[in-house]
Amino acid sequence: MATKVTRIKARDDAPKAKSDEPEEITRKVSVKAKNSESKKSKAETKTKVKAQKKAEKAAEKKDQKVGYFRGAVRELRQVRWPNRKETWKMTLSVIVYVVILAVIIMLLDALLQFIFTKILGGN
Predict the structure, then answer these.
(1) Domain boundaries defined on the chain
(2) pTM for this predicted structure
């Protein structure tokens, strides 16, 4: 028993409420190529389209890579680079903060060591 495949075509101007009008039904029909020449030409066009899409993707990837480096260079040009005086100020401030934190950590270490030796009854 063969089954019929039908599709209902949706339209924007279709009434929202139910009416007595029959629904529009369309049937999907497949047409077979009758001669082998049309099949060959279709196959050739498919391969051409695939090759063209492949070339477009390769060009897109190349553009993306080039675009990335162009964007990076553009961003580097927008950076406000410090002069020699500002660079030395920032370097010295980093060194001072590192020394201060090192002293704080050493003091905490000594304090905790003292407390634990008193609690555990060591020397």
Answers:
(1) 36-79, 83-123
(2) 0.38
